[in-house]
Specification:
The structure is a single chain. With about 260 residues, the chain is of the alpha/beta class. Helix content is about 20%, strand content about 10%. It is built from five helices and seven strands, in the order H-E-E-E-H-E-E-H-E-E-H-H. Helix 2 (about 110-120) packs across helix 5 (about 195-210). The longest helix has 16 residues, at about 195-210. The protein is globular and about 45 Å long.
């Protein structure tokens, strides 16, 4: 495993090229990463997510039988902070908080379990040296929010990003997860919705850690977690994780 110097994106806000348009169409039809300081508000990004070789444990309300019609498109815009898993002790390089929009049918503590499992998975960013500790206060340098499409659009719009009711975004310390993607996955993802969650978290947290987009390294190889897999795999196979089980980084050429 190769060590890399830490770096941060401090440029102006931007979003994935054609991300919202690609998401709407979809609904109709290397080198080791770097590590940042959590307090920094890095550049926002809007993006999407795909497949894990082994899915993290699903929240009870997010099994594969979820009826799309049952997933609300709008909510009150208020959030409840997850308390389960919160640690008051030391450990964990980066502090994060999980929040879920009220009244949308997702239990905050169950969602926090999923996020914690993804962040601690040996195929995740922890292999690159990024350890995380869940908190429930303003000491969090990273905030993961799960909300309805309308709320996601509004909060991402505050960063000048157009998520089009379809995709997720990351702005400053905030990762905004579209409820549709959390509960239903994506029609372009070769795997269950619970596996797709791993790509959502790994891709957006990867942006927060300072990583830009990557592209397919070769036909038949796993797509990088930092690839915009929603726009097509370019010969790669769906993959949600930045590392394989042997600790090798599953990267690809950087996208300018």
């Amino acid at each position: 495993m190769t060590a890399a110097a830490a770096f941060l994106y401090l440029d102006a806000p931007w979003q994935d090229e054609d991300a919202a348009a690609a998401g709407r169409e979809a609904s109709r039809a290397g080198s080791a990463p770097a590590t940042p300081t959590p307090e920094v508000s890095a550049s926002p990004k809007a993006s999407r997510s795909p497949k894990a070789s082994k899915s993290p444990t699903a929240s009870p309300e997010a099994d594969e039988s979820v009826d799309p019609a049952s997933v609300p498109k709008s909510g009150p815009g208020t959030f409840t902070v997850a308390r389960k898993g919160v640690s008051s002790g030391g450990g964990g390089k980066y502090r994060y908080r999980v929040e879920v929009e009220d009244g949308i049918g997702v239990d905050p503590d169950s969602a926090a379990d999923d996020v914690a499992e993804i962040l601690s998975d040996p195929r995740g960013w922890s292999t690159g040296g990024a350890s995380f500790r869940q908190v429930a206060d303003d000491s969090a340098g990273l905030v993961v929010r799960i909300g309805t499409a309308k709320t996601t659009d509004k909060l991402c719009g505050d960063y000048g990003l157009d998520t089009g009711g379809e995709v997720n975004c990351r702005g400053g310390k905030n990762v905004m997860v579209n409820l549709d993607r959390w509960q239903l996955g994506s029609p372009t993802f070769d795997g269950p919705a619970t596996g797709y969650r791993a790509l959502i978290i790994n891709h957006e947290v990867g942006h927060w850690l300072g990583h830009g987009h990557e592209t397919c390294p070769g036909k038949g190889k796993p797509a990088p977690a930092m690839m915009q897999q929603i726009k097509g795999l370019e010969g790669c196979t769906s993959n949600a994780w930045p590392y394989d089980r042997n600790g090798h980084y599953l990267g690809g050429p950087s996208v300018p």
